[in-house]
Write a structure and sequence with these properties.
- The chain is α+β, with helices and mostly antiparallel strands and 300 residues long.
- It folds into two domains: 138 residues, no CATH class; 124 residues, Rieske [2Fe-2S] iron-sulphur domain (Rieske Iron-sulfur Protein, 3-layer Sandwich), CATH 2.102.10.10.
- Helix content is 33%, strand content 17%.
- It has four helices and 13 strands.
- β9 and β10 form a beta hairpin.
- α1 runs antiparallel to α2, α1 runs parallel beside α3 and α2 runs antiparallel to α3.
- Bound molecules: FE2/S2 (inorganic) cluster.
- FE2/S2 (inorganic) cluster (FES) binds next to loops.
């Protein structure tokens, strides 16, 4: 009977030498579990508002757990050849066959444990992949509902300055400008209004707005219809409002119609009236949404 030498990964592989491999399997399983926990922690931290240092540390642990686990698996738990086996050319002896079956049985048990590690790795990677959706999901933000259609301006709302004092008919000279809010909502971004006085007589900017500009006071939403910057500059000579972000110009005498720049539509005008004490009040809220166009409105 001749004998040949061959390279093989199977029967001669000494599984008994891997009794310590159980410890290694536990260690690797622990790494994957740690990675999973770090991934979950990262998701929770991100969802609650985020904290860069904590997120960085958790991301480090999550990736480290997977990385070290995979490397250790490859290095310590997979057979490394080449293995030299002496084998019979033709038929194995009964003793050899028995030894083979026993070895196969032990190997099957080990493979069963390895499949557990495979599942742990899959769960860790799956959780980490799922985490990548979080920035996308969070960027969707809350549904705006009707909030884009309404401000805190309403019928008879008192027009007040930034210090909370009421605006009266004598507060602006012709050519003057002022930022105002509805009483009780000072500083609220969607409520900011730019008040200008191009003349000292009633102004009509468009048909249907005959009573909106008493004694030359005109009020427009300060939120630019292009990208929402505050329209903060009034050029008295040309009677135009300027948005500093992208230089849109709005002609106040024609209802803040855009005459230059990317703004697609006029600034909404707030109808005013003067009460018995000489204070400025709004006749109603805006008759259209303020600010940039959005998906239900378009940029008409
Ligand atoms: S935001 Fe006003 S012009 Fe762009």
């Amino acid at each position: 009977m001749s004998e040949v030498k061959s390279t093989s990964n199977d029967s001669e592989y000494d599984y008994s030498s891997m009794t310590g491999s159980r410890t290694m399997e536990r260690f690797i399983g622990g790494l994957f579990a740690t990675s999973l926990l770090a991934t979950v922690g990262l998701g929770v931290t991100f969802w609650l508002g985020g904290q860069p240092q904590i997120e960085g540390a958790l991301l480090f642990v999550a990736l480290l757990g997977i990385g070290v686990g995979v490397v250790a698996w490859g290095k310590y738990l997979t057979p490394h050849g080449p293995f030299v086996q002496e084998r019979e050319e033709l038929k194995s002896s009964d003793m050899d066959r028995d030894a083979f079956y026993k070895s196969l049985e032990r190997g099957t048990k080990i493979l069963g444990r390895r499949s557990f590690l495979g599942k742990m790795l899959g769960v860790s990677l799956g959780a980490f992949g799922l985490l990548q959706l979080f920035p996308f999901l969070r960027s969707l933000g809350p549904v705006p509902g009707k909030s884009l259609y309404v401000t805190d301006w309403h019928k008879d709302a008192q027009v007040v300055k930034v210090d909370g004092s009421p605006v009266t008919v004598n507060d602006l000279e012709v050519g003057g400008v002022m930022t105002v809010f509805p009483e009780g909502f000072i500083g609220n971004a969607v409520d900011q209004v730019i008040l200008v006085r191009p003349a000292n007589y009633n102004l009509v900017t468009r048909p249907g707005r005959e009573s909106w500009g008493p004694q030359g006071y005109l009020a427009f939403s300060k939120v630019c219809t292009h990208a929402g910057c505050p329209v903060g500059l009034y050029q008295e000579l040309t009677q135009q409002l300027l948005c500093p972000c992208h230089q849109s110009l709005f002609d106040v005498l024609t209802g803040a119609t855009p005459v230059f720049g990317p703004a697609p539509r006029p600034l909404p005008q707030l109808p005013l009236y003067i009460d018995a004490d000489g204070g400025l009040r709004s006749q109603s809220g805006f008759n259209e949404p303020i600010g940039p166009g959005f998906w239900e409105r378009g940029n008409e």
